Amino acid sequence: MRDEVVRQATISAEIVKIAKQDAAAGPTRTGHPRRDYAPYRSSLLRHPTHELVRVDPEDVERLSPAFGHTDVDILESDLTIQHTGEPLGERINVFGRVVDGEGRPVRHQLIEVWQANASGRYVHKRDQHPAPLDPNFTGVGRVITGDDGEYRLTTIKPGAYPWRNHLNAWRPAHIHFSLFGTAFTQRLVTQMYFPGDPLFALDPIYQSVTDPAARARLVSTLDHEASTPEISLAYRWDIVLTGPRSTWMESEDAHD
Ligand SMILES: [Fe+2]
Questions:
Q1: Which residues of the chain have pLDDT under 50?
Q2: Nearest alpha-carbon partner for 47 in 28, 33, 64, 27
């Protein structure tokens, strides 16, 4: 049987319907995404249906990766210098602070990022989107937060790309972030977006965070003062790990 073709209008209508339900629910909203969010089609099949299995964190950490501060080179925070030539696209800086719920800096933590190139293409065998790869851009970087929880990356503004949630589904431009914590079992993963993206309203992943205030915290802000003149624009994005104003983090099975 052929799969039914689902159009953007259908997905958008579902997004609006759920948003109205959640707005009506008011105080019960958590700021976290719905795990079985119907407009995000694959979430219906792969969201957890049982309580998580609890394991001893010490056992997990014996088998898990670890890193030392000397393992991360300062140059890894610049995704534009990993090859012999300059990558194509709009050079940007992304910077901010990682803080806890009380605003205290989260120091010396490993941040990992991965993203599509300026054409919206990942260097990954599963990404067969017919946009060009850039031989001068891999799209992965790492940085360790400083004494005030600060971080700074240099990269290329990623392009939007199509995915197969429904007919002609496009993801807003985004950068994936992983925050390692002090142990592997604390790792958190989320996405940063760019201000004013017209694809926000259409994207079921962005909209699966049904609290508008929580969604807004995933969007960086253009900081002209922090730009490098004639070289790059700068986007500020602060990450709050805990508390009512925390940055939404995705479940382990979401990776689009
Ligand atoms: Fe992505």
A1: 1
A2: 33
